[in-house]
C-alpha cells in the first residue's frame, strides 16, 4: 500500500536534508512494509557532479558487509539440507588452514576468534588473491574460539570458501542461483553493471572529492563486495521481515536472528548482538535485525523491525524496514538517518490494525484459568493457537505450542523447548500440568495431584 503524499514529502525532505548536512555525493533509500517497497528516494548524482546523471532506486551502490548476510543464508540452507552441521569444525569441510578447529556456527556469529582483517595489504583497496593465497598469508585466530564476539572479515571469506567446496561452484554463483534469482534481485552483482555510483572520499575540511578504487577482492569478496540497488535490497529486507518465500523456513530465519553473542563495547550498555549472519539490536524495547556495510567510497544500511513493538518510539508493523546507501567513505549518516526515515513512516502512517475475531476452540477451556506452582499463582490463557502461562518476558512466563495430544512445547525464555504435559485422572478430567518436572495444580500443593516430595498429611495450618 503506497504512502500518502504528505508522508512522501516528509521523507523526501528528510533525505535531502541528510544529503546536505552530511555532505554526501549522493544518497538513496527505501522503506519496506508488508513485504513491499512503499517509498524510495534519492538525492545527488552518480559522479558527484551537479551535471551528472541523477541516482535513483535502480542505481547500484556497493553494499559492503551486508554481503555477509547472503553468505550466511546460503550456509544455513546447506545446514537445512543436511549437508553440514553448525557444530562441524571448519576443517572437516575445508581442511588445511589455521581455522581447522573453529566451528561453522562460530564463524557465522563472529565468535570464532578469527583475526578481523587479512595478514597482507589493506584488502578493501587492493586486488585480492584466491583462497590458497589467503591461507598462505597466515590468517589465523586472535582469541580462543567461542570466547567472545570479534568481528571478522576473514571469517566470512572462510564461509565463502565453504560454500564453494560444498556446492562445488563459485560462492557468488551459489548466491545468485539460490537467492538472487528466486527473489528477482537482478540488479545485485559481484561487480558494478549498468547505472552505478562512483565511490568517493569527501575531504573533511573542503568541498572536494577523491575517487576511491574498485576491484575484485578475490577470496575476501564474500566479506563485502556485492553491489545492489534500493529496489533489489528492499526484497532482501522483505525476506528478513518474514516474507521468506521458498528461500528459508520461518524457523531457520528465527534461529538466525536470535542473539548469539553480545557486542561488548567498554562503558556502553549491551544494545547490540550478533546472530547467524545478521546483526541484532534491542533498543528501548524495540527488536530489530539487519546489517551495516562499508567499503572505500560507500556506506550502506539495512534494518528491519522484528515485531510491532516500537519501544519508546511509534508502533509500526512487524517487518517495517529501511535500506540506505551513500557513496562516501566516512560519515555519521548511518547513525541517525535510517532510523529517522523509519520513525517518520511509523509516525505518519500507523500500521493497519487487524480486527480481533473469535478464533479459538472451546476444547482448551479446561486448561485456562488459575494454576499454582507450589504457593505461587499463575494464569493460563490462550492467544491464537498458543497456550500462554504467566507473562512472557517476565519471570518464567512463556508461550507454548501444541506438540500432540496433551503435549505442548515452550517457545519463550526459560521454558524454550521444554515440554508441558497435561496429566488426567481416570475419568479423563485434567488433574495437573507437568512442566519440565514442575507440577502446576488447581489448588496450592493439591495432595491428589502427585506432587513430587509429597504433601505433609497435616495440610495447611
Automatic annotation (TrEMBL):
Please give the Pfam families that the UniProt record associates with this protein.
Answer: Beta-lactamase (PF00144), DUF7586 (PF24491)
On whether RNA-binding is a keyword of this UniProt record, the answer is: no
- Where is each DUF7586 domain found? 362-442
Cited InterPro entries:
AmpC-like (IPR050491), Beta-lactam-related (IPR001466), Beta-lactam/transpept-like (IPR012338), DUF7586 (IPR056008)
What positions does the domain Beta-lactamase-related occupy? 12-331
Which keywords label this protein? Answer: Hydrolase
Q: So which domain of life are we looking at? A: Bacteria
**Does the keyword field hold rRNA-binding?**
no
* GO MF terms held by the record: hydrolase activity
Q: What is this protein called?
A: Serine hydrolase
Q: Which organism is it from?
A: Knoellia locipacati
